């Protein structure tokens, strides 16, 4: 039987990237992002699977001792865990692999089947229901406080290939992903109840990765995350020009890893992890959506060079978390700057840093590697990579 096809309406984005939104059988949104000069046709196969209804939106519980909100999402227990290559749920569908993506793609983004947040929102919009109890004042006191975990969780597939990471992509593909990050940041920031948007990539089983397919995720939270709340406090204490001063401070010191016209990569003065490098735009931009075309173009090359340098440190690929910190949607946008925090627990070729009593229980970190030493090794590794055409 010939599969059904559809031609999703094309929406032009920057750098020649084209966005093509569709839907999955259970109502989840799936968006193709075609490379500039893609070889794919306009037609896309229809997802003809029969899927179970989406799980109910999770519930948040407030830790009264810290003020943190914990989303209890039991449906995540059912997510795929290191499936065989021929059953890759992020590869294009085949007759023997009923994956999440019905057709070939360059980059694709879709709603997670077992999300930590959503599909409910603070207000009903489209086919997304409203949460049962809109959060209101999340900082109000009281024991036993709960709210619906409104928001959105999305998967970002960097490539249809079954193995790799962001760092293994071409410059053109990296540019497509950056455009997708910017587009999703804009769209998700406009959803009712979303307070912060967080793109990230987990790489390596040592980090807890359950799929080897090159991919990342985007979380749209219904609150400002604890790490960002601390950042906002720092901005209030130090001034809204803090990031500009940090870049000037690091530029003049021994921890710079990579310099470019629009971006600076450095090991921070008080790095916690054996491998920790930050990458930030020289000009203030609150999130991906605020980057200029020139900044996005250069980022595609700079980021690839940085990731490939990290992988030159040891004979085997290094596990990491690539966390793209963005300003909250509604507060702190004049001071909180988009920046990457790439961290790895790898402290030697065959050794990892584990968060034991002091770090895990008390949040009192002890650094294993002097930041200046880590920066020297990273700088040399990045230099070996050379400029990326």
From TrEMBL:
Alphabetical list of Pfam families matching this protein: GalP_UDP_tr_C, GalP_UDP_transf
Cellular component, GO annotation: cytoplasm
Catalytic residues as annotated in Swiss-Prot or TrEMBL: 215 (tele-ump-histidine intermediate)
One example GO MF annotation: UDP-glucose:hexose-1-phosphate uridylyltransferase activity
Boundaries of every Galactose-1-phosphate uridyl transferase C-terminal domain copy: 253-383
Residues in Galactose-1-phosphate uridyl transferase N-terminal domain copies: 76-224
Database matches in Gene3D superfamilies: HIT-like (3.30.428.10)
Keyword Endoplasmic reticulum (UniProt): no
Bias kind Low complexity: ranges: 82-91
Region: Disordered, residue numbers: 81-102
Lineage top rank: taxon: Bacteria
GO biological process terms, semicolon-separated: galactose catabolic process via UDP-galactose, Leloir pathway
Entry similarity comment: Belongs to the galactose-1-phosphate uridylyltransferase type 1 family.
The protein's name: Galactose-1-phosphate uridylyltransferase
Lineage, broadest ranks: Bacteria, Bacillati, Actinomycetota, Actinomycetes, Micrococcales
